[in-house]
Amino acid sequence: MITYDVAVIGGGIVGSAIARLLGGADLSVALLEARGDVGDGTSKANTAILHTGFDAKPGTLESRLVARGYHLLGEYAAATGIPVERTGALLVAWSQEQLDALPGLRDKAARNGYTACEIVDAAEVYRRVPALGAGALGGLTVPGESVICTWTTNLALATDAVNRGVRLLRHHRVTAVHQDADITRLTTTAGEVAARWVVNAAGLGADRLDALFGHDRFTVTPRRGELLVYDKLARPLAPCIVLPVPSSAGKGVLVSPTIYGNVMVGPTAEDLTDRTATGTSETGLAFLREKAATLMPALTKEEVTATYAGLRASIGRDDYLIDLDAGQRYLLVGGIRSTGLTAGMAIAEHVAELLGGHLDLAQRAGLPAPPRMPNLGEAFTRPYQDAAAIAADPEYGRVVCFCERVTRGELRDALASPVPPADLEGLRRRTRAMNGRCQGFYCGARVREIFEGEKE
């Protein structure tokens, strides 16, 4: 049995970013994922915003890592083709209390190192977003906020890790931990894995894994966020991200364009006990419809093409919980909320700094170039629009999913990629197939036929 230098547990954005960075050193690294695919947990369902960190709690580890991650991920997206739209954001004040809070929020942003925020009056708010409901009193601009593809981000990091020599072990849920003098043996649902060091980036399961190492320091509460997705015809209504002014009850409901050309409203925030409860609820969707009608009344005339829910790993504190236990050769990365999308690469840097006193993390010469990812962004050229690509390979001109304009060539490429999908949902996240208005009603059978044929 191979004994790895490091086992990273959790194939979400944070775990994949850590595995990628460690995989660049002269180390043997395994990335263990409990599910059948990377990015199939918390990382797949969030608001998909690349955050400036303007509203983080100043002085926290989260604040520092989100600000650093914003630049790291922005540069990585440019290098790999992860689609990013620099839409900007606008916090809208609907009451005098919220209006009075704007100067404090601008000052808070400055304390976080972000100085581009500007307070604007009601006339400017409506100039920027004419479709807003009546009653806005003013706003705060955040020009650096962007929308990004969280699916492609996760897949790019995991693919990069694999290309650097990291061993991806899917369907490896850790059920027991046995520590010897120099080696930790992880019992998983697919056999035993041995490693000298273990990094816990297990997201919703981080506290349970932490307990297997003998700790009792936090509990993960799954916080469900439900969202509505409106048809692409609604996109002109939301030229930028529209944010609520935060309150003691939370950040509230936003209206945002998506990288796929839709408009999204949400999320809700509901603490649960079931860590698998990713279904939507009647009350949650009714609440979001009501909020949408108030924030942007024109949305009531637009079609909802999808609903979904994601679970965030709340641990009851306003910061990340990242801690190294040198005696156990164990590092915990816990309490990473939705900002983990932006902060992931910076979290990996921080982990490397903590491990640097125990492992040689000098990056190897001759590392492979970052992978070039297929574009899923509606604002950029996609294969069906690329005459040169179609001329070179006619499969890019054969559309299979007509709602999302996904071609046979894209499906083929995804199935032959270094981290291929394990199922149709994984194929959806890699291509957008079955993600449109009909939700696979018309193309689902053909997509399944291609999936099963290429898998044989």
What can you see in these coordinates?
This protein starts with a strand and ends with a helix. A hairpin with a 4-residue loop joins strand 21 and strand 22. The protein is α+β, with helices and mostly antiparallel strands. The protein has helices at 13-23, 61-80, 96-111, 122-128, 150-163, 206-212, 282-295, 340-355, 387-392, 408-415, 424-431, 444-455, and strands spanning 3-9, 29-33, 49-50, 84-85, 89-93, 118-121, 138-142, 146-148, 167-170, 174-179, 184-188, 191-200, 221-230, 241-244, 254-257, 263-266, 270-271, 304-314, 321-325, 330-334, 399-401, 406-407.
Topology:
Blueprint: E1 3-9, H1 13-23, E2 29-33, E3 49-50, H2 61-80, E4 84-85, E5 89-93, H3 96-111, E6 118-121, H4 122-128, E7 138-142, E8 146-148, H5 150-163, E9 167-170, E10 174-179, E11 184-188, E12 191-200, H6 206-212, E13 221-230, E14 241-244, E15 254-257, E16 263-266, E17 270-271, H7 282-295, E18 304-314, E19 321-325, E20 330-334, H8 340-355, H9 387-392, E21 399-401, E22 406-407, H10 408-415, H11 424-431, H12 444-455
Parallel strand pairs: 1-2, 1-12, 2-9, 5-14, 12-20
Antiparallel strand pairs: 3-8, 4-8, 5-7, 6-7, 10-11, 11-12, 13-16, 13-17, 13-18, 15-16, 19-20, 21-22
